[in-house]
Structures are given as structure tokens and as C-alpha cells.
Amino acid sequence: MSNTPPAKKVGLIVYFIGFTAALAGLLFGLDIGVISGAQIYIQRDLNVSDQMIEWIVSALLWGAVAGALASGVLCNKLGRRRTIMGSGLLFACGSIFCAVAPDAQMLIVARFALGLAVGMASFTAPLYLAEIAPQSVRGGMISMYQLMITIGILVAFLSDTLFAGVAEKQIPLPEWGAEAGHHDALYFGSFVLSLATGDGTWRLMLGMVAVPALIMFAGVFFLPESPRWLLLNGLRQQAESVFRKLHLDDAEIAAEVRAIEDSVKIPQKGWSLFFENAAFRRAVFLGIGLQICQQLTGINVIMYYAPRIFGMAGFESTSEQLWGTVIVGLTNVLATFIAIAFVDRLGRKPIMYAGFVVMGLALLAVGGLFHSGVEGNPTLGYAAAFALLLFIVGFAMSAGPIIWVLCSEIYPLAGRDFGITCSTGTNWIANAIVGMTFLTLVQGLGPGNTFLLYGAMNVLFIIFFLFFVPETKGVSLEQIEKNLMSGKRLREIGR
Ligand code: BGC
């Protein structure tokens, strides 16, 4: 018989909290995914160059850099709950602003504002979840957040595809729409229909993100503040009442409060630690390096430009390109489960090696196939599409979730906020650079060489992992910290 105590029943409220906060992940994913299908229509409707499209894609990412960097301060000053609420409101307003932007310049401004919300959510929601989730479901809740990002991307791809389906059929506008006066509800109805039936389709694609954003905004009103933040600000009674809401008994509450009070005694002194302590500096550079690797795998080239890539591979109709993109999104969701299942069993590094090998080979194959002339040859086109999907499997089972896991494990407590701010900021900067340069690279080098370049980088990252990245499976964060600060090599801080 097992001696394990029966798992404590977790109240419904915990799932409600988890779901509402994980909606931030869904919104993050929606905003990442929605632009890939929308850009075809934006380019046609606003008649802009590829370079302008790169700016429209990446404005959100620069906004996310600023949002993530500002979040450390916002979370401390306003609390986690109000920061998530603020991001929900910004998500909703930003999406509507995007939908009504009159020209490309305003669209760039709107995407930047939306990016602030994405950056704030990407920093605050996982932090809030980690702080509020009871021990027994903590890992699951953070994984749920990761999974929600991929689901958000998939839903965005699907919604783009459905809107495009309506648009491509070119449903004729009803006569009454044109005849009715400007202030008439009928006129408004026909205006909305006209958006869904022409090049203005992108406005609906981008605007629909306001709906889940408003749901999250409303839901956050009912969320409690993070008890850790309350204790950090001397609000002990409120913290205890949050724990009571989560159905903890008195003894458990006392233990949680003691543990949190002990941990918040350690002052966060990131900057001074960074300048004074070489070991900490190395950890910060490792986090930055890990996030650069994640982005330079080229994942977001596919996330943002998949329909175009399918187009380059010879899939000519918009519907083929968009359905191909939906399959990419679905593969991304499903393969994330591989990481969730194996990360604590096989360890981080074996999965990362497997992932980089798959990603490297897959992209080299895509590059090779483009060189052999996919466009005129459907068989090669399908082979390239298959290799792209293989690349997505490689990413989602490894670098997607595991880089985030590693980045939450390698910093000593006194510099954790600082370290995570640096690595999350780097993630968005590298993300923006990838988003901003893909079309230019394709124009300059051709698609074949561009994919060969990304493929080669994936192979190179194996060397980085071999020499610099520790295996952290089953090692306590305290032990990792001890090893790091005692001057062990980065690769060995997990032993
Ligand atoms: C990355 C994002 C990427 C997403 C794809 C995340 O881990 O940070 O940049 O778009 O995975 O699923």
C-alpha cells in the first residue's frame, strides 16, 4: 500500500482563479497568432510593402519588451491582480484600436499598445499563478498557462481561417445596406458585413481578440490578490483570508505564511548583485542565452508568416495556406504535451538535444527542398510542409516550454526578479528581431538559404547546451543556488 497521503481536494475557486489568470496566456497566444492570417488582407487593403508588414508584425513585440520590463515595477507597486486587470483592459482597447486603425502608421501604434498588454501578461500571469496556486496543483497550473498560449495561437489561426473563408466567397452586400442612412442600424450591419466580405476582413480578425480580453477583465474582478504580495506589503490579515478562500486550514495557513515571510525577508537586490557577483552575472547571461536560443530556432518565423511560407512552397490558394497554418497550430498544441509528460522524467537536456536535432534537420530539409524548386512540384511542396510540421513538433516538445522552465530555475532568490526580467525582456527583443527580419532575409537570400541559416543555428545551439546548460531535473532550487554561488561551472550547477 502506498504511504502517500491522499491528495487534498482543491476547491473550485482554485480552478476558477487558474482559468481566469491563464486566460492571459490565451490572449498572449491569440495576439501572436492572429497576425499571420490577417497580414495577407492588411497588405492588400492598405497597400503596404513587405517592410511595412514587418513593422506591423513586430510593433507588438517591441511593445511586449516595454510591457515586460515595466511589469516588475507595476507588479510590486500595484499588486499582481491590478496589473493583470490593467493588461486585460489594455488588451481590449488595443484590439479595438487595431480594428479601427485608419492606416498602417496607426496600426503600428495600436499594435505597440497591444504589445504592452502582452508583455505585462507574459510577466505577471505566471508569477501570480505560481504565487497563488496550492502546492499540489502548482506545476499543473503553470503548465496550463503554457498550454493556453499554444491554444490561443491555434484559436487565432482558426478564426483567421474562418473569417477568410467568408471573405473569399465574397458574399454580396445586401441592397438595404447601401440605401440606408449613415446613422441607421441597418447601415452599421451592412458595414460589419462588408468588413467580413472583403480586404477589410483583417479588422474583424484583429478586433475579435477584444472579446476574450473583456471576459478576462471581468473575471479578474473576482480574483483575490496574491498572498505573497499582500504579505510583502504587511497585509497579513488579508493574506490569511485569501488562503481561507482557497480552503486551507489554520495549520496550513500558518505554515504558508511562515514560509512566505521567510522568503520575503531576502531582499531583491538584482542590480547590485549583478555588478558585484560574477556567479550571478553568469546566471543572468545563461538566461539571456537560453532565450536567444529559443527565439533563433526560428519558431516565430513560422508563427507569424506560416501562410506566406506555405505560399512560397507552392500552396497557392489562401484557403490552403490558412488551413496549413491551422495544422501548424494544432501540432504546436499537441506536441506541448510531450514536454509536459517527460520534462520531470527524462530531464531537461535529453529533451532539448532531441528537440534541437529534430528542429535542425527539419529546417535544413525545408531549405534543401526550397533549393530543389518546391513551387512547380507538389510532391516536394508536401514534403516541405511535412518538414515544417516536424520542426514545430521539435520546438513544442523542447525549447517552447523548457526554456521557460530553466529560466525560472537558474537564478538565486535574491536576484530572481531581476534575472527573470532580463530573460523575459530578451525573449521579446529576440522575438521582435526575428519578426522584423524574416521577409527581408527571404528577399535578400531567398527562402532556401534563409531556412538553411535557421537550420544551421539550431545545430549550433546543441553546442551551447553541451557546454553551458545545466541539468536541473530533481534538484532543489536551493541546491542550484548553492552550486552557482560557490563558483561551479554553469554546466554543473544542477549536480
Ligand atoms: C515562445 C513564443 C512562441 C510560442 C509558440 C513560446 O514558448 O516564447 O515566442 O510564439 O512558444 O508556441
The pLDDT mean sits at: 86
> Cα-atom Rg, whole angstroms?
24 Å
Largest sheet, strands/sense/barrel:
none
Q: How is the CATH topology of the largest domain named?
A: Growth Hormone, Chain: A
Which oligomeric form is depicted? single chain
Strand content: under 5%
The total number of structural domains is 2
Small-molecule binders here are: beta-D-glucopyranose
Termini, distance in Å? 32 Å
> What is the name of the CATH class of the largest domain?
Mainly Alpha
Residue runs with pLDDT of under 50 for 5 or more positions:
1-7, 170-183
Element string (H = helix, E = strand)? HHHHHHHHHHHHHHHHHHHHHH
Determine the CATH superfamily of the largest domain.
MFS general substrate transporter like domains
Q: How would you characterize this protein structure?
A:
By secondary structure, the chain is mostly helical. It has 2 domains: 11-223, Growth Hormone, Chain: A (Up-down Bundle), CATH 1.20.1250.20; 269-495, MFS general substrate transporter like domains (Growth Hormone, Chain: A, Up-down Bundle). The chain contains 22 helices and no strands. The protein is globular and about 70 Å long. The model is unreliable at 1-7 and 170-183 (pLDDT under 50). The structure holds beta-D-glucopyranose.
Spell out the blueprint of helices and strands:
Elements: H1 12-46, H2 50-78, H3 80-100, H4 104-132, H5 138-169, H6 175-179, H7 185-196, H8 201-207, H9 210-220, H10 227-232, H11 236-245, H12 250-264, H13 270-276, H14 278-296, H15 299-312, H16 318-342, H17 348-371, H18 378-397, H19 399-407, H20 416-445, H21 447-468, H22 477-485
The structure holds beta-D-glucopyranose.
